[in-house]
Protein backbone atom coordinates (compact mmCIF):
# COMPACT_ATOMS: atom_id res chain seq x y z
CA UNK A 1 0.00 0.00 0.00
CA UNK A 2 1.31 3.46 -0.90
CA UNK A 3 1.90 5.62 2.14
CA UNK A 4 1.60 9.38 1.84
CA UNK A 5 2.50 11.86 4.55
CA UNK A 6 1.23 15.43 4.48
CA UNK A 7 2.87 17.99 6.76
CA UNK A 8 0.67 20.84 7.90
CA UNK A 9 2.39 22.64 10.76
CA UNK A 10 0.37 25.84 10.61
CA UNK A 11 -2.80 26.53 12.58
CA UNK A 12 -6.52 25.65 12.39
CA UNK A 13 -7.36 27.79 9.35
CA UNK A 14 -4.56 26.33 7.23
CA UNK A 15 -5.41 22.78 8.27
CA UNK A 16 -9.02 23.30 7.12
CA UNK A 17 -7.67 24.75 3.88
CA UNK A 18 -5.62 21.58 3.35
CA UNK A 19 -8.72 19.36 3.56
CA UNK A 20 -9.63 19.64 -0.17
CA UNK A 21 -6.19 18.45 -1.29
CA UNK A 22 -6.37 15.53 1.16
CA UNK A 23 -9.78 14.62 -0.25
CA UNK A 24 -8.46 14.86 -3.81
CA UNK A 25 -5.51 12.59 -2.92
CA UNK A 26 -7.94 9.96 -1.63
CA UNK A 27 -10.25 10.44 -4.60
CA UNK A 28 -7.41 9.95 -7.05
CA UNK A 29 -5.73 7.11 -5.11
CA UNK A 30 -8.39 5.35 -2.98
CA UNK A 31 -5.91 2.70 -1.78
CA UNK A 32 -3.48 5.23 -0.37
CA UNK A 33 -2.84 5.38 3.39
CA UNK A 34 -2.86 9.08 4.25
CA UNK A 35 -1.06 10.30 7.37
CA UNK A 36 -0.76 13.93 8.39
CA UNK A 37 1.63 15.57 10.82
CA UNK A 38 0.19 18.57 12.64
CA UNK A 39 1.08 20.52 15.74
CA UNK A 40 -0.33 18.92 18.88
CA UNK A 41 -2.47 21.94 19.76
CA UNK A 42 -4.23 21.96 16.38
CA UNK A 43 -4.66 18.22 15.85
CA UNK A 44 -8.46 18.30 16.30
CA UNK A 45 -8.77 20.13 12.95
CA UNK A 46 -6.97 17.26 11.21
CA UNK A 47 -8.88 14.58 13.12
CA UNK A 48 -12.15 16.07 11.83
CA UNK A 49 -11.15 15.46 8.22
CA UNK A 50 -12.90 12.31 6.95
CA UNK A 51 -10.05 11.59 4.52
CA UNK A 52 -7.15 11.26 6.93
CA UNK A 53 -6.22 7.73 8.06
CA UNK A 54 -3.73 8.73 10.72
CA UNK A 55 -2.97 11.97 12.56
CA UNK A 56 0.55 12.24 13.97
CA UNK A 57 0.98 15.15 16.38
CA UNK A 58 4.31 16.93 16.68
CA UNK A 59 5.16 16.45 20.39
CA UNK A 60 5.43 20.18 21.03
CA UNK A 61 4.50 20.11 24.72
CA UNK A 62 7.08 17.45 25.52
CA UNK A 63 9.86 19.32 23.71
CA UNK A 64 8.74 22.64 25.14
CA UNK A 65 8.68 21.22 28.67
CA UNK A 66 12.22 19.98 28.27
CA UNK A 67 13.40 23.30 26.84
CA UNK A 68 11.80 25.29 29.65
CA UNK A 69 13.18 23.09 32.42
CA UNK A 70 16.37 24.88 33.53
CA UNK A 71 17.69 21.64 35.03
CA UNK A 72 17.37 19.71 31.76
CA UNK A 73 20.37 19.78 29.42
CA UNK A 74 19.71 21.00 25.88
CA UNK A 75 20.50 17.51 24.60
CA UNK A 76 17.33 16.13 26.22
CA UNK A 77 15.07 18.32 24.02
CA UNK A 78 17.08 17.31 20.96
CA UNK A 79 16.73 13.68 21.99
CA UNK A 80 12.93 13.89 22.24
CA UNK A 81 12.75 15.38 18.75
CA UNK A 82 15.31 12.87 17.39
CA UNK A 83 13.36 9.91 18.78
CA UNK A 84 10.19 11.21 17.20
CA UNK A 85 11.95 11.63 13.82
CA UNK A 86 13.37 8.11 14.07
CA UNK A 87 9.86 6.79 14.76
CA UNK A 88 8.49 8.63 11.70
CA UNK A 89 11.31 7.23 9.58
CA UNK A 90 10.29 3.68 10.51
CA UNK A 91 6.89 4.37 8.91
CA UNK A 92 8.67 4.63 5.50
CA UNK A 93 6.51 7.01 3.55
CA UNK A 94 6.53 6.74 -0.24
CA UNK A 95 5.59 10.36 -0.67
CA UNK A 96 6.06 13.38 1.60
CA UNK A 97 3.97 16.45 0.82
CA UNK A 98 4.89 19.51 2.84
CA UNK A 99 2.02 22.01 2.83
CA UNK A 100 3.38 24.08 5.72
CA UNK A 101 5.56 26.60 3.88
CA UNK A 102 7.81 27.31 6.89
CA UNK A 103 11.49 26.59 7.65
CA UNK A 104 10.86 24.03 10.42
CA UNK A 105 8.84 21.85 8.08
CA UNK A 106 11.68 21.90 5.53
CA UNK A 107 13.96 20.06 7.99
CA UNK A 108 11.20 17.60 8.79
CA UNK A 109 10.54 16.91 5.09
CA UNK A 110 14.20 16.37 4.37
CA UNK A 111 14.67 14.07 7.37
CA UNK A 112 11.82 11.85 6.16
CA UNK A 113 13.01 11.65 2.57
CA UNK A 114 15.12 8.88 1.16
CA UNK A 115 16.17 8.14 -2.40
CA UNK A 116 12.83 6.73 -3.47
CA UNK A 117 10.58 9.22 -1.66
CA UNK A 118 8.63 11.63 -3.81
CA UNK A 119 8.98 15.00 -2.12
CA UNK A 120 7.09 18.23 -2.66
CA UNK A 121 7.07 21.35 -0.54
CA UNK A 122 9.85 23.07 1.37
CA UNK A 123 12.82 20.80 1.95
CA UNK A 124 16.61 20.90 2.20
CA UNK A 125 19.56 20.19 -0.08
CA UNK A 126 21.98 17.51 1.07
CA UNK A 127 24.22 20.16 2.61
CA UNK A 128 21.34 21.59 4.66
CA UNK A 129 20.60 24.59 2.43
CA UNK A 130 16.98 25.43 1.79
CA UNK A 131 15.45 23.74 -1.26
CA UNK A 132 12.04 23.87 -2.92
CA UNK A 133 11.45 21.05 -5.39
CA UNK A 134 8.04 21.96 -6.83
CA UNK A 135 6.54 24.83 -8.80
CA UNK A 136 3.64 25.54 -6.39
CA UNK A 137 5.86 25.85 -3.32
CA UNK A 138 8.40 27.96 -5.20
CA UNK A 139 5.59 30.28 -6.17
CA UNK A 140 4.41 30.37 -2.57
CA UNK A 141 7.89 31.19 -1.25
CA UNK A 142 8.43 33.95 -3.78
CA UNK A 143 5.06 35.63 -4.08
CA UNK A 144 2.63 34.82 -1.25
CA UNK A 145 2.22 36.90 1.90
CA UNK A 146 1.17 40.29 3.26
CA UNK A 147 1.68 43.21 0.88
CA UNK A 148 2.30 40.98 -2.11
CA UNK A 149 0.25 40.69 -5.27
CA UNK A 150 -0.61 37.02 -5.24
CA UNK A 151 -4.10 36.24 -6.54
CA UNK A 152 -4.04 32.45 -6.08
CA UNK A 153 -5.94 30.98 -3.17
CA UNK A 154 -3.93 29.06 -0.55
CA UNK A 155 -6.26 26.06 -0.95
CA UNK A 156 -5.27 25.84 -4.63
CA UNK A 157 -1.59 26.32 -3.86
CA UNK A 158 -1.70 23.49 -1.30
CA UNK A 159 -3.34 21.31 -3.97
CA UNK A 160 -0.60 22.26 -6.43
CA UNK A 161 2.02 21.23 -3.89
CA UNK A 162 0.15 17.94 -3.38
CA UNK A 163 0.05 17.40 -7.16
CA UNK A 164 -3.74 17.17 -7.34
CA UNK A 165 -6.34 19.03 -9.33
CA UNK A 166 -9.29 20.02 -7.17
CA UNK A 167 -12.85 19.38 -8.20
CA UNK A 168 -15.89 21.11 -6.75
CA UNK A 169 -16.76 18.15 -4.52
CA UNK A 170 -13.29 18.27 -2.94
CA UNK A 171 -14.03 21.67 -1.40
CA UNK A 172 -17.26 21.01 0.45
CA UNK A 173 -18.01 18.45 3.13
CA UNK A 174 -21.66 19.21 3.64
CA UNK A 175 -24.73 19.53 1.46
CA UNK A 176 -25.34 23.17 1.14
CA UNK A 177 -26.01 26.64 2.32
CA UNK A 178 -29.69 26.54 3.28
CA UNK A 179 -30.36 26.80 7.01
CA UNK A 180 -32.05 28.99 9.56
CA UNK A 181 -29.10 30.07 11.70
CA UNK A 182 -26.82 33.06 11.48
CA UNK A 183 -23.50 32.15 13.06
CA UNK A 184 -21.56 35.14 14.26
CA UNK A 185 -17.95 34.45 15.07
CA UNK A 186 -16.66 37.12 17.41
CA UNK A 187 -13.09 35.98 17.75
CA UNK A 188 -10.16 35.87 15.41
CA UNK A 189 -6.86 34.04 15.46
CA UNK A 190 -4.96 37.30 15.92
CA UNK A 191 -5.97 40.55 17.62
CA UNK A 192 -5.50 42.64 14.47
CA UNK A 193 -8.26 40.61 12.78
CA UNK A 194 -10.72 41.14 15.67
CA UNK A 195 -13.74 43.48 15.75
CA UNK A 196 -15.08 45.05 18.97
CA UNK A 197 -18.23 43.87 20.87
CA UNK A 198 -19.98 47.17 20.12
CA UNK A 199 -19.43 46.67 16.37
CA UNK A 200 -20.94 43.20 16.50
CA UNK A 201 -23.86 44.39 18.65
CA UNK A 202 -24.66 47.16 16.13
CA UNK A 203 -24.51 44.64 13.33
CA UNK A 204 -26.89 42.25 15.12
CA UNK A 205 -29.35 45.06 15.90
CA UNK A 206 -29.30 46.02 12.22
CA UNK A 207 -29.88 42.42 11.10
CA UNK A 208 -32.75 42.02 13.58
CA UNK A 209 -34.49 44.93 11.86
CA UNK A 210 -34.23 43.12 8.53
CA UNK A 211 -36.56 40.31 9.67
CA UNK A 212 -34.49 37.56 8.12
CA UNK A 213 -36.25 35.03 10.33
CA UNK A 214 -33.13 33.31 11.57
CA UNK A 215 -31.60 32.60 14.96
CA UNK A 216 -28.40 34.40 15.93
CA UNK A 217 -25.70 32.19 17.41
CA UNK A 218 -22.56 33.71 18.86
CA UNK A 219 -19.35 31.70 18.54
CA UNK A 220 -15.86 32.21 19.86
CA UNK A 221 -13.06 30.74 21.91
CA UNK A 222 -12.84 30.51 25.71
CA UNK A 223 -10.86 33.77 25.77
CA UNK A 224 -13.82 35.52 24.13
CA UNK A 225 -16.43 34.66 26.81
CA UNK A 226 -16.77 38.14 28.34
CA UNK A 227 -16.74 39.54 24.82
CA UNK A 228 -19.71 37.29 23.96
CA UNK A 229 -21.64 38.35 27.07
CA UNK A 230 -21.26 42.03 26.09
CA UNK A 231 -22.52 41.37 22.56
CA UNK A 232 -25.49 39.33 23.80
CA UNK A 233 -26.42 41.99 26.39
CA UNK A 234 -26.64 44.71 23.72
CA UNK A 235 -27.78 42.51 20.82
CA UNK A 236 -30.70 40.96 22.71
CA UNK A 237 -30.73 38.19 25.33
CA UNK A 238 -33.80 36.49 23.87
CA UNK A 239 -32.83 36.78 20.25
CA UNK A 240 -29.18 35.85 20.55
CA UNK A 241 -27.88 32.44 21.67
CA UNK A 242 -24.45 32.72 23.19
CA UNK A 243 -22.22 29.67 22.62
CA UNK A 244 -18.94 31.53 22.98
CA UNK A 245 -16.33 29.30 24.62
CA UNK A 246 -18.71 26.34 24.74
CA UNK A 247 -18.10 24.48 21.48
CA UNK A 248 -15.48 21.95 20.48
CA UNK A 249 -14.42 21.72 16.84
CA UNK A 250 -16.49 18.55 16.46
CA UNK A 251 -19.57 20.37 17.79
CA UNK A 252 -18.87 23.34 15.56
CA UNK A 253 -18.65 21.03 12.58
CA UNK A 254 -22.00 19.45 13.52
CA UNK A 255 -23.63 22.89 13.91
CA UNK A 256 -22.31 24.07 10.55
CA UNK A 257 -23.39 20.88 8.82
CA UNK A 258 -27.02 21.97 9.27
CA UNK A 259 -26.30 24.98 7.02
CA UNK A 260 -26.94 28.67 7.39
CA UNK A 261 -25.02 31.93 7.28
CA UNK A 262 -21.67 32.79 8.83
CA UNK A 263 -20.42 36.28 9.61
CA UNK A 264 -16.93 36.92 10.84
CA UNK A 265 -13.31 37.80 10.30
CA UNK A 266 -10.78 35.46 8.72
CA UNK A 267 -10.30 32.63 11.25
CA UNK A 268 -10.26 28.87 11.78
CA UNK A 269 -14.07 28.73 12.23
CA UNK A 270 -14.52 30.69 8.98
CA UNK A 271 -12.38 28.14 7.14
CA UNK A 272 -14.41 25.30 8.68
CA UNK A 273 -17.59 27.14 7.62
CA UNK A 274 -16.21 27.23 4.06
CA UNK A 275 -15.67 23.46 4.17
CA UNK A 276 -19.28 23.03 5.34
CA UNK A 277 -20.43 25.29 2.49
CA UNK A 278 -22.11 27.92 4.68
CA UNK A 279 -22.92 31.27 3.10
CA UNK A 280 -20.16 33.46 4.46
CA UNK A 281 -19.96 37.22 4.84
CA UNK A 282 -16.31 37.82 5.66
CA UNK A 283 -15.44 41.13 7.30
CA UNK A 284 -11.85 41.45 6.24
CA UNK A 285 -9.42 44.09 7.37
CA UNK A 286 -5.82 44.73 8.30
CA UNK A 287 -3.06 42.61 6.85
CA UNK A 288 -5.32 39.75 5.81
CA UNK A 289 -5.42 38.94 2.10
CA UNK A 290 -8.79 37.58 1.06
CA UNK A 291 -7.23 36.57 -2.28
CA UNK A 292 -5.24 33.98 -0.37
CA UNK A 293 -7.48 32.84 2.48
CA UNK A 294 -10.96 34.28 1.86
CA UNK A 295 -14.16 32.18 1.89
CA UNK A 296 -15.09 30.36 -1.30
CA UNK A 297 -18.36 28.61 -0.48
CA UNK A 298 -21.69 29.29 -2.20
CA UNK A 299 -22.87 32.93 -2.07
CA UNK A 300 -19.85 33.93 0.00
CA UNK A 301 -18.42 37.38 -0.15
CA UNK A 302 -15.69 39.54 1.32
CA UNK A 303 -16.22 43.05 2.64
CA UNK A 304 -12.86 44.83 2.95
CA UNK A 305 -12.40 47.50 5.63
CA UNK A 306 -9.33 49.58 6.36
CA UNK A 307 -10.22 49.61 10.05
CA UNK A 308 -13.23 49.11 12.29
CA UNK A 309 -15.80 51.88 11.70
CA UNK A 310 -17.48 53.77 14.59
CA UNK A 311 -20.92 53.39 13.04
CA UNK A 312 -22.26 50.69 10.76
CA UNK A 313 -21.61 52.26 7.32
CA UNK A 314 -24.57 52.58 4.93
CA UNK A 315 -22.53 50.76 2.36
CA UNK A 316 -22.02 47.77 4.67
CA UNK A 317 -25.73 47.73 5.52
CA UNK A 318 -26.56 47.59 1.82
CA UNK A 319 -24.05 44.79 1.20
CA UNK A 320 -25.57 42.78 4.07
CA UNK A 321 -29.07 43.25 2.60
CA UNK A 322 -27.82 42.02 -0.79
CA UNK A 323 -26.06 39.07 0.88
CA UNK A 324 -29.14 37.85 2.73
CA UNK A 325 -31.28 38.27 -0.40
CA UNK A 326 -28.70 36.45 -2.55
CA UNK A 327 -28.35 39.42 -4.85
CA UNK A 328 -25.12 40.43 -6.57
CA UNK A 329 -22.89 42.56 -4.36
CA UNK A 330 -21.84 46.09 -5.31
CA UNK A 331 -18.70 46.59 -3.30
CA UNK A 332 -17.86 43.13 -1.97
CA UNK A 333 -15.55 40.63 -3.57
CA UNK A 334 -17.14 37.28 -4.30
CA UNK A 335 -15.78 33.89 -5.27
CA UNK A 336 -16.34 32.96 -8.91
CA UNK A 337 -16.25 29.16 -9.30
CA UNK A 338 -15.62 29.40 -13.05
CA UNK A 339 -12.84 31.94 -12.74
CA UNK A 340 -11.48 30.15 -9.65
CA UNK A 341 -10.76 33.53 -8.11
CA UNK A 342 -12.47 36.52 -6.54
CA UNK A 343 -14.41 39.05 -8.56
CA UNK A 344 -15.73 42.47 -7.81
CA UNK A 345 -17.54 45.18 -9.67
CA UNK A 346 -14.38 47.31 -9.51
CA UNK A 347 -11.28 46.73 -11.62
CA UNK A 348 -8.87 44.81 -9.43
CA UNK A 349 -6.06 43.65 -11.67
CA UNK A 350 -3.02 45.50 -10.40
CA UNK A 351 0.05 45.75 -12.62
CA UNK A 352 2.06 43.56 -10.25
CA UNK A 353 -0.54 40.79 -10.33
CA UNK A 354 -0.51 40.97 -14.15
CA UNK A 355 3.28 40.65 -14.05
CA UNK A 356 2.81 37.55 -11.87
CA UNK A 357 0.55 36.02 -14.52
CA UNK A 358 3.10 36.90 -17.20
CA UNK A 359 5.95 35.32 -15.23
CA UNK A 360 4.20 32.19 -13.99
CA UNK A 361 1.33 31.56 -16.41
CA UNK A 362 3.00 32.72 -19.64
CA UNK A 363 0.39 35.40 -20.26
CA UNK A 364 1.20 38.50 -22.32
CA UNK A 365 3.54 41.00 -20.69
CA UNK A 366 1.42 43.81 -19.26
CA UNK A 367 1.86 47.35 -20.49
CA UNK A 368 3.70 49.64 -18.08
CA UNK A 369 2.33 53.15 -18.08
CA UNK A 370 3.87 54.41 -14.85
CA UNK A 371 7.21 56.05 -15.45
CA UNK A 372 8.61 55.19 -12.02
CA UNK A 373 7.97 51.48 -12.62
CA UNK A 374 9.47 51.69 -16.06
CA UNK A 375 12.59 53.43 -14.69
CA UNK A 376 12.87 50.66 -12.10
CA UNK A 377 12.60 47.97 -14.79
CA UNK A 378 15.35 49.67 -16.76
CA UNK A 379 17.58 49.58 -13.65
CA UNK A 380 16.76 45.90 -13.25
CA UNK A 381 17.72 45.18 -16.86
CA UNK A 382 21.07 46.96 -16.30
CA UNK A 383 21.73 45.23 -13.00
CA UNK A 384 20.88 41.85 -14.50
CA UNK A 385 23.30 42.49 -17.37
CA UNK A 386 26.01 43.43 -14.89
CA UNK A 387 25.34 40.22 -12.96
CA UNK A 388 25.62 38.22 -16.18
CA UNK A 389 28.95 39.87 -16.99
CA UNK A 390 30.26 39.03 -13.51
CA UNK A 391 29.14 35.42 -13.95
CA UNK A 392 30.56 35.01 -17.45
CA UNK A 393 33.89 36.84 -17.08
CA UNK A 394 35.98 35.53 -14.15
CA UNK A 395 38.23 38.64 -14.43
CA UNK A 396 35.32 41.01 -13.92
CA UNK A 397 35.74 43.23 -10.84
CA UNK A 398 32.58 41.83 -9.29
CA UNK A 399 33.13 38.19 -10.27
CA UNK A 400 34.13 37.23 -6.74
CA UNK A 401 31.83 39.70 -5.05
CA UNK A 402 28.41 38.60 -6.23
CA UNK A 403 26.98 39.42 -2.80
CA UNK A 404 27.28 43.13 -3.73
CA UNK A 405 25.01 42.53 -6.70
CA UNK A 406 22.64 40.44 -4.57
CA UNK A 407 22.36 43.34 -2.16
CA UNK A 408 21.65 45.77 -5.01
CA UNK A 409 18.92 43.42 -6.28
CA UNK A 410 17.38 43.28 -2.82
CA UNK A 411 17.33 47.08 -2.54
CA UNK A 412 15.72 47.31 -5.97
CA UNK A 413 13.10 44.71 -5.06
CA UNK A 414 11.92 47.00 -2.25
CA UNK A 415 11.49 49.94 -4.62
CA UNK A 416 8.18 48.66 -5.97
CA UNK A 417 6.08 45.50 -5.87
CA UNK A 418 6.35 45.23 -9.68
CA UNK A 419 10.14 44.93 -9.42
CA UNK A 420 9.79 42.73 -6.35
CA UNK A 421 7.80 40.16 -8.33
CA UNK A 422 10.62 39.76 -10.91
CA UNK A 423 13.44 39.76 -8.38
CA UNK A 424 11.77 37.34 -5.95
CA UNK A 425 11.20 34.97 -8.87
CA UNK A 426 14.93 35.07 -9.62
CA UNK A 427 16.17 34.71 -6.04
CA UNK A 428 13.79 31.80 -5.37
CA UNK A 429 14.94 29.95 -8.48
CA UNK A 430 18.56 30.53 -7.43
CA UNK A 431 17.83 29.01 -4.02
CA UNK A 432 16.97 25.78 -5.78
CA UNK A 433 20.33 25.42 -7.50
CA UNK A 434 21.80 22.25 -5.95
CA UNK A 435 25.19 22.02 -4.24
CA UNK A 436 28.06 21.57 -6.72
CA UNK A 437 31.36 22.97 -7.93
CA UNK A 438 31.62 26.79 -8.15
CA UNK A 439 31.77 26.62 -11.96
CA UNK A 440 28.62 24.47 -12.13
CA UNK A 441 26.75 26.79 -9.79
CA UNK A 442 27.84 29.84 -11.80
CA UNK A 443 26.62 28.18 -15.00
CA UNK A 444 23.21 27.48 -13.47
CA UNK A 445 23.01 31.04 -12.10
CA UNK A 446 23.88 32.34 -15.57
CA UNK A 447 20.98 30.35 -17.06
CA UNK A 448 18.61 31.92 -14.55
CA UNK A 449 19.83 35.45 -15.22
CA UNK A 450 19.48 34.76 -18.95
CA UNK A 451 15.92 33.61 -18.29
CA UNK A 452 15.24 36.86 -16.42
CA UNK A 453 16.76 38.83 -19.30
CA UNK A 454 14.35 37.09 -21.67
CA UNK A 455 11.43 37.90 -19.35
CA UNK A 456 12.49 41.56 -19.23
CA UNK A 457 12.94 41.82 -22.99
CA UNK A 458 9.55 43.47 -23.62
CA UNK A 459 10.65 46.29 -21.31
CA UNK A 460 14.04 46.94 -22.89
CA UNK A 461 13.13 50.05 -24.84
CA UNK A 462 14.65 53.48 -25.12
CA UNK A 463 13.09 55.80 -22.53
CA UNK A 464 12.96 58.55 -25.14
CA UNK A 465 9.84 56.88 -26.54
CA UNK A 466 6.65 57.46 -24.51
CA UNK A 467 6.22 54.35 -22.38
CA UNK A 468 2.59 53.62 -23.20
CA UNK A 469 3.23 53.55 -26.95
CA UNK A 470 5.95 50.93 -26.74
CA UNK A 471 3.64 47.93 -26.87
CA UNK B 1 2.43 42.99 34.85
CA UNK B 2 3.24 39.60 36.40
CA UNK B 3 2.45 37.95 33.06
CA UNK B 4 4.73 40.35 31.23
CA UNK B 5 7.62 39.59 33.57
CA UNK B 6 7.07 35.85 33.16
CA UNK B 7 6.91 36.24 29.37
CA UNK B 8 10.22 38.12 29.36
CA UNK B 9 11.85 35.44 31.52
CA UNK B 10 10.67 32.70 29.15
CA UNK B 11 11.90 34.67 26.13
CA UNK B 12 15.33 35.15 27.73
CA UNK B 13 15.48 31.44 28.59
CA UNK B 14 14.59 30.44 25.03
CA UNK B 15 17.16 32.89 23.70
CA UNK B 16 19.75 31.09 25.82
CA UNK B 17 18.49 27.74 24.48
CA UNK B 18 18.94 29.04 20.92
CA UNK B 19 22.57 29.86 21.69
CA UNK B 20 23.09 26.41 23.24
CA UNK B 21 21.62 24.80 20.12
CA UNK B 22 23.92 26.89 17.95
CA UNK B 23 26.95 25.68 19.92
CA UNK B 24 25.73 22.11 19.64
CA UNK B 25 25.28 22.53 15.88
CA UNK B 26 28.84 23.82 15.47
CA UNK B 27 30.16 20.95 17.59
CA UNK B 28 28.36 18.39 15.39
CA UNK B 29 29.67 20.01 12.20
CA UNK B 30 33.23 20.04 13.60
CA UNK B 31 33.19 16.28 13.98
CA UNK B 32 30.96 15.29 11.01
CA UNK B 33 29.62 16.64 7.76
CA UNK B 34 26.01 17.89 7.80
CA UNK B 35 24.02 14.93 9.11
CA UNK B 36 20.73 13.95 10.78
CA UNK B 37 21.88 15.18 14.21
CA UNK B 38 22.74 18.58 12.77
CA UNK B 39 19.37 18.68 11.01
CA UNK B 40 17.52 17.85 14.25
CA UNK B 41 19.30 20.67 16.08
CA UNK B 42 18.42 23.15 13.36
CA UNK B 43 14.79 21.95 13.38
CA UNK B 44 14.61 22.62 17.10
CA UNK B 45 16.02 26.10 16.58
CA UNK B 46 13.28 26.76 14.06
CA UNK B 47 10.64 25.52 16.51
CA UNK B 48 11.78 28.17 18.95
CA UNK B 49 12.04 30.90 16.29
CA UNK B 50 8.65 30.11 14.79
CA UNK B 51 7.06 29.86 18.21
CA UNK B 52 5.79 26.41 17.20
CA UNK B 53 6.13 25.16 20.74
CA UNK B 54 4.26 27.90 22.54
CA UNK B 55 1.01 26.66 24.09
CA UNK B 56 -0.54 30.02 23.20
CA UNK B 57 0.04 29.73 19.48
How is this structure best summarized?
In chain A, 45% of the residues lie in helices and 14% in strands. Chain A has 471 residues and is of the alpha/beta class.
Structure, described:
The complex is a heterodimer of chains A (471) and B (57). With 471 residues, chain A is α/β, with parallel strands linked by helices. Chain A has 19 helices and 15 strands. In chain A, the strands form three sheets. In chain A, strands 10-9-8-11-12-13-14-15 form an eight-stranded mixed β-sheet, with helices on both faces. In chain A, strands 3-2-1-4-5 form a five-stranded parallel β-sheet, with helices on both faces. Chain A starts with a strand and ends in a 15-residue tail after the last helix. The relative contact order of chain A is 0.09. Chain B has 57 residues and is mainly α. Helices cover 77% and strands 0% of the residues of chain B. Chain B is elongated. At the A-B interface, helix 3, helix 4 and helix 5 of A face helix 1 and helix 2 of B.
* Cα-atom radius of gyration of chain A: 25 Å
Q: List SSEs of chain B in N-to-C order.
A: HH
Helix/sheet category of chain B: mainly alpha
Question: If you average the pLDDT of chain B, what whole number results?
Answer: 87
* Strand count of chain B: 0
